[in-house]
Each structure stands twice: as C-alpha cells, then as structure tokens.
Design goal:
- It is a single chain.
- By secondary structure, this protein is an all-alpha fold.
- The protein has one domain.
- Helices cover 55% and strands 0% of the residues.
- It has 7 helices and no strands.
- Helix 4 runs antiparallel to helix 5 (86-101), helix 4 (69-83) runs parallel beside helix 6 and helix 6 runs antiparallel to helix 7.
- The chain is elongated.
Length: 150
C-alpha cells in the first residue's frame, strides 16, 4: 500500500475520547487550569534559565536573533503579545537596544547578522510610536550583501 503525504488522518480533538483529553482540555475546548498552570510554570523556568545565558561570556558577545540576546528579546516580545505582560516588553526593548548598539555592520543575514536586531527594533519602536528610533528600518534597507566566512 502506498500512502501519500495528504493521506495521513490526524483525529480532531473532539474525536479523541477518554480521560487523557480531560487532563489538557475542558469540555469547552479551553486549556484546563491544571495544564495551563503547569505550562506556565515550565515556561517561566525556561525563560529564567535562558535569561541567565546573558550573563555568560558568550551571551554578552552574541547579539544575533538566532543564538544571541536578540533571540531572547524576540521571545520576550512574543510573551508580551500573548500575555500583555509589560515587564516582558521592557526586557525585549532593553535587549534589542543593547543588540543595536553592538551591530557588526558587515553581515546581512536575518538570523546571524544585523538584519534581525534591526527588524525587531523597528517593530518595538513602532509600538511605542517612537519614529526617530524606528529608523532601524532604514538601516535594514542600507545593509548590503557581504560574504564572510566564520
């Protein structure tokens, strides 16, 4: 029997019966309070561990969105978008400001270069209506492709 990619059948949540579903979801298709609490606890623990990375020597050097503190800023921004937790937004802004002051100016890549921090900075500054700071967008446009072997 040959099965194509579109032939897989994943059951919908309401098609799964039994006690396992009630651990995660209420009858109204909302996350159960216990599962939400556990998830929030684990998320907070992971965020705390990852934030500790900033105080390592590698963490202070790496401004990229892929492995550095702009990635942490993006994580905090996404947490803010989901929870409206103002301290997460402030952390995101602080980390992004630090990253922007440490741009190398020679790598265009979004993940490992200057484009990622500049793009996130544009989003964060635009949220505040701080159009002077949102000139990061112009900096992104001025980046030129360069090739560098790491």
């Amino acid at each position: 029997i040959e099965i194509g990619m579109g032939d897989y059948n994943y059951p919908k949540l309401n098609e799964i019966h039994g006690s396992k579903v009630s651990i995660y979801v209420t009858p109204y298709n909302k996350l159960s309070e216990s599962f939400y609490a556990r998830t929030k606890t684990v998320t907070d623990q992971i965020t705390h561990l990852v934030d500790g990375y900033l105080y390592t020597s590698r963490g202070r050097e790496d401004h990229t969105i892929y492995t550095g503190y702009t990635g942490l800023a993006l994580t905090h921004f996404l947490i803010y978008r989901k929870t409206k937790n103002a301290p997460s937004l402030e952390i995101a802004k602080k980390l992004t400001d630090t990253a922007i002051t440490r741009l190398s100016g020679d790598l265009v890549s979004f993940l490992t270069g200057d484009a990622g921090p500049l793009a996130l900075g544009t989003v964060l500054y635009s949220l505040d209506g701080n159009l002077d700071r949102s000139s990061c967008c112009n900096s992104v446009k001025m980046l030129r492709p360069t090739y560098r072997v790491r």
